[in-house]
Structures are given as structure tokens and as C-alpha cells.
Amino acid sequence: MAGVLLGVTGGIAAYKACTLVRLLVRAGHDVYPIITAGAERFVAAETFFALARTTQSGDPYPHLQRADLLVVAPLTANTLARLAHGLADDLLTEAALAHSGPVLVAPAMNSRMWMHPATQANVRVLLSRGVELVGPVEGELAEGEEGIGRMAEPEEILTRVEAILVAGTRTPGSLSGLRVVVSAGGTREPLDAVRYLGNRSSGRMGVALVEEAQRRGADVTLLAANLTVPAPLGITVVETPTAEDLEREALACADADVIVMAAAVADYRLPSPSASKRPKDGAPWVIELAPTTDVLRALGAARRPGQVLVGFAADGADSGLERAREKRRAKRADLFVFNDISRPDIGFDAPDNEVVLISEDGEREVGKAPKSVIAAAILDEAERVLSKR
After folding, report:
1. What is the pTM of this model?
2. Catalytic site residues?
3. Distances in Å between the alpha carbon of 196 and those of 124, 150, 266, 283?
């Protein structure tokens, strides 16, 4: 059980914070709400205190209340800017300055406000101070527009809260000073000027790994293959849309301390795609595909002493696990992550995953959980391998 200060700022997403309070309380945490005047235009402060099963403090210095974690959800562009610049003109910003523990914020605003250079600069300031972000996510916004800016769902925020609290039991900065490279997404191999061979990988698992490595203090590079989710801020992002691009950039990073190849890389490609669109003429289109380079095998062949190499195997349940074991040995990887693609509730397109971690020392099952939790388990195992060297 942990003490959580929950700041709620003035946006329509304030109503979602009510659900977040209930989830935190149900998880056994002590929640003390700090409600801004703007938030009270949408939800009364009394509602949050009732849901938190506590009463508003009569302490003249409630902003000095000790807590294990400060969460701000939703976080408006205005309060984001005030936090970045260290202003303390209301109870929440005073509490943020006085709080000495981890901070998690869930931004919520119009997509144009989120993408504005001033907002992005403020986000980078917060990230540089160790503040963690969850969201914003893409979807329908309050004013009826579509875009990135929605507050992350309360369930996702709770998952991040739990991950941060668990991480607090680890050595801070456990990957500090190390370079971590993660590939994410799915490559697309051109057939002609408009068509391609692709797969359903969204990049969520890889992005979760990037966020977890960043949280642990690593210098992170993301090899992004057609992500359908936003890349985290504060890292190096290299676009790798095709298998050839991914091969080139991965080998350029082959000296990293930890390499995690989470992207779904095409096994085959068209050797000479057409530079123009092939017209539909009613006749069958017969194409001959050539195998792509096995990037993970190439990294395994080029690996240096002390390096940790992690591969992924997305396969069917029946014989996929055995194939994953064989791949780990053949490609000289330290760790392989097997997930069952025959299940629609995990893996591709899903927020959750369920995996088997395969290493030289044995196998470990990680039950169904949000991908952020799976990412932490994968990096825990990678750190275990690192510690042995």
C-alpha cells in the first residue's frame, strides 16, 4: 500500500479521474486528492474526497503532506507549463515543488496544443527531471476532433502507478550509463508505388520496452518500423520502414550494451518493386519473393563480449515455443520472448501480452498483463544476464 497525492486539473477529462481514484483505493492505496479551481468547474472536490474515503485536510500546509507518488491526471497544457517552470501559484504546484518522490502525469489537451513547440519543450523539461508521462493517446477529443491528446484511460494510469511503485524497490538508475537499442513496429516491403507486404504489429510492446529502459536511466535508441502508437519523448528515434532499413540501422548500433529486437521484421520481400502503381487488369499477379536478411542472426554473429541480445518469437502455441528455443540457440541470443499469436487477446494490436522468457538458465512464464508490466519483466531478465557478466 502506498500514499498517493492525486492532482486533478481543469479539463473535461477530470471526470475520468473519479474512476482513477476508485481504482487506486481498490488497489489498497491511500489517496489524497488535490483539486484545482479549474477542475472544480467539472467535478466538485467533495466527490473526489468521498471516492478516496477521506476528508479534506484542515492542515494549513497540505502541500507538504508526504506521499510515495504524485500523480496529476488530467494534466492540462497550462499546468504542464507551470510545472516545467517551477511556478507555485496554487496548492497543486506547491505540492509538486515540495514532493520529493516520483511523479507521474497524464496530459490531456487538444492535439494542436499538445504538438505546439512550447508544449513539447515543456514536456522535455519535465522528462529531464525524471517526471514520467502516460499518454496522451489518440482518439476522439472533447471538441469533436480526432487526434492525439486524450488522457490515458484510468486502468492504464493505474498500471503505470503500480509499475513505478514496484520500480521503487529496484536500484535507481539500474541501466544508467548503458546504451539500449530497441526495435519496434512492423516493416513494410514495397510491391509497387502504393502497395506493400506488412504485418499487424503496432509497436506497443517495443514502445513499452523503450519507456521502461528510459525509466531505468538508459540512453535509448528506438528503431521505429511504421509505429501506430506515439514514440516516447526524450529518446533517439531512427525510422526503419523496411527490413533493409532495419538491418542497416541495427548493425550500425551493434555496439550497444543491450539490443532488444521487438519489431516484426518481414521474412520476404520483392527484389525489384515497381516504381509506379501496377494497374488492375483482371489477370493474376504472380510475384516471386526473396528472403530478407535475418537481422537478429547478423547481430548475434557480430556481438561483442558482455553484450545482451534479446529476440522475439511471435508464433502459434502448438510448436511455436519449441521453435523459439531453437531460434535462441541458432541466433546466439541471450533471451528470447515467445508470445502466442493464435490468441486475439494478447500480442498484435492488443494492450496486453503473455509471454515465456527463454534463456540459457531456463524458462519463465509471465502471465497476461499490460505490456508495460511485460516490458519490466523482460528488462529484469536482461539485467539479470548483465549482472552475471
Report:
1. 0.70
2. 199
3. 35, 31, 11, 19
